[in-house]
Structure formats: C-alpha cells, structure tokens
Amino acid sequence: MRIRNVLVQTILATALALAATAHAENPVFPGWYADPEAAIFQNQYWIYPTTSARYGEQTYFDAFSSTDLVHWTKHESVLRMADVPWAKKAMWAPAMAEKDGKYYFFFAANDIQNDKALGGIGVAVADRPEGPFKDLLGRPLIDAFHNGAQPIDPFVFHDDDGSWYLIYGGWKHANVVKLKPDFSGVVATPDGKTYHEITPSPQYVEGPLMFKRNGKYYFMWSEGGWTGPDYSVAYAIGDSPMGPFKRIGKILQQDPKIGTGAGHHSVFHVARDDSWFIVYHRHPLGDTDGNHREVCIDRMTFDAQGHIVPVQITREGVPAHAL
Ligand code: FUB
Question: InterPro entries, alphabetically (predicted)?
C-alpha cells in the first residue's frame, strides 16, 4: 500500500513538473491559418484565425482554445458561410467581443472592390465562445468605402468609459468608428462625424489593432504585402482612440533564419502578472505560396518608456503560461 502511495505521488509530481516546463512550438497548432484574433474568454485563451486558402474556399472559421498557450483544442467551423446570408467568399480576419453574456464575432466577407458590391464587415453572435455563431443583422455592418478604407480587417476596442469602437480598414487606410451598444450599427461622435480616419503613416496597409496601457492608446497595424516576405507590424501611441497617431516603428518582421512575412497579429494580455504575448501569422521558410500562413505566439515586452521592444520571432514559442 505504502509503495503504491509513493508511486502515485511520484507520478503526480512528475506530471506537475512536466506541465510547468511544457513549451509551445511555433506554429502553435497545425494547418494553414492567418490573421489570428486573440481573446480570453471563460478563463481560457482563444484564437480565432482566418482559414488561409483561396478566396472561394474561405467559407468557414475554426477556433482554438487553451488553458496554457501550449495545448490547443480545435473547435471546427464555429462560423460558417451558410449562416451569413450575404457572404459569398473571402471570409477574413475575426475580431471578438464579449458583452452581457453573449459572444460577438466580427469578420469581413466578399472582398468588395467598390460600393456597388455586396459585402464588407459583418457581425455574428453566439451564447458560447465556441459558437455556433449566426449572423446578427442579415446584412453587413459596414458595407461601403469611407476615407478610402476597404471595409475589411475589423478590430473591436472596448474603452474604460464603456464605449465600444470598431477599428478597421484595408487599402492603406484605417478608420475608427463608434459602435451602437447592441452592435447593430455605428454612431456619430458629438462633432457629427461617424468615420474617423486614423491612418498613421503611408506605410499602413491593413490589420489594425488597439489596446490601452498605462493610460495610453497603442495602435498597431500591418505593413507590406501579406503574400510576401516583408509583411510586418508597426505601431504608434496616442492619447485618444481617435488619434492622432504617429508611426514609431516596426516591432515584428521576418527573420530569414526562422520564417517570413510575420504580420497581421493580435495580443494576449494576462492581467494576473501583466504579461503580453503577440499572436501572429508567418510563412514557413522557403515556402512561396502566399496562403501558406501559420499561427505563432511569441513574447511581447515594453521598455521603461512604454515603447514596444521589437519581437524576436522563434521556433520554440513560449513556455506554458496559466491564466
Ligand atoms: O486572408 C485574409 C487577408 O490576408 C486579411 O484580411 C489581410 O489582412 C491579410 O492578412
């Protein structure tokens, strides 16, 4: 009996030690996926990526959950084109929000080229992070170009004062717009304007993101072409979600020894220990198929002045990190 107890204790201790030293690898899960959206829901890490395939095959989104950033569970087809009546192809770039016990999934669809085409940014809703998500409005939330921004690549930002903002835009222009509290539309700000352009520099291309840290608004985005090696991430810091934002510099880019085209990212912020992780996609070394994009996670840190320290992309990824 005593020997059995000792044995059980040893096995338990070994399992715990292994869990503590577990390490992710990059990519963090198999498959061609891009534009990863990072969210923390129900005390778990979640990643919602674009299915990286030809536009006609981008008809569903899978999601991935984890308790430690190392072991990931796949949730298949959490949002399907069949559940979005107006979507026909090219479903891209999830952005997630939790509000009043519901989960909201913003996305782009149809890759519209002008205001006559049907498509743009839509929103779907579910009772659980793993879906199934269903289209909320029966039409796009943003269905036209404003300030030159193609309505793609949404990001949802919840400010401390309770306001919800949608930041989005491709074709080298970024807009910020205030959302109605039920996400059924957009509202004008007191100056009467609805679509505020916050394009920070001529290098801006797409994939915007915002977070607040120590009272400052960090605006991040992707530069370069997403199919090529130079895709990368840069950032600015401002005093309001409406800007102005002035480019500070690049913080994520290819490493010719590790991978190329590192970009279109999002971040996990773990409040418990104020740690930050950057979640992004990149191409495997030597692979020139633009859709061969894989999701990776590396550490993101700040210097004493609050600037983001350029990220070292790795093959090893990050150690296990409990929430
Ligand atoms: O595959 C989808 C598209 O790729 C995104 O919306 C772009 O930002 C690029 O990452």
Answer: Glyco_hydro_43, Glyco_hydro_beta-prop_sf, Glycosyl_Hydrlase_43_Enz
| CA 254, chain centre distance (Å) | 18
User: Reduced to 3 states, what is the DSSP secondary structure of residue 83?
Assistant: helix
List pLDDT tens digits, range 182-197. Answer: 999 999 999 999 999 9
Q: Which residue has the tokens 């679509």?
A: 195
Tokens of 288: 């020139």
Residue ranges of alpha helices (H) inside the chain are 2-21
Give the class (CATH, top level) of 33-299: mainly beta
Instruction: Check if the beta carbon of residue 271 is closer than 8 Å to that of residue 283.
Output: no
CA–CA dist 250, 255 (Å, integer): 13
Choose among 113, 97, 93: nearest CA to 105: 97
**pTM of the entire structure?**
0.94
Q: What is the pLDDT of residue 306?
A: 98
Q: Active-site residue among 68, 135, 206, 223?
A: 206
Laid out side by side, the sheet with 102-109 consists of 92-99, 102-109, 120-126, 134-135
- Residue whose Cα lies nearest atom 2 of ligand 1: it is 92
Integer Cα distance of 109 and 131 in angstroms: 18
Substitution site in 206, 292, 295 for ligand 1 pocket (most atoms within 8 Å of beta carbon): 206
Distance CA 135, CA 122 (A): 8
Distance of CA 319 to the CA centre of its chain: 20
Return the structure tokens found at 303.
Answer: 């210097």
Identify whether the C-beta of residue 209 lies closer than 8 Å to the C-beta of residue 167. Answer: yes
Tens-place pLDDT, residues 51-90? 999 999 999 999 999 999 999 999 999 999 999 999 999 9
**Cβ atoms 174, 208 nearer than 8 A:** yes
Tell how far the Cα of 241 is from the centroid of ligand 1, in angstroms.
23
Tell me which residue of 34, 27, 99, 26 sits closest to 62, measured CA to CA. 34
Provide the residue ranges of all domains of the chain, joining segments of one domain with +.
33-299
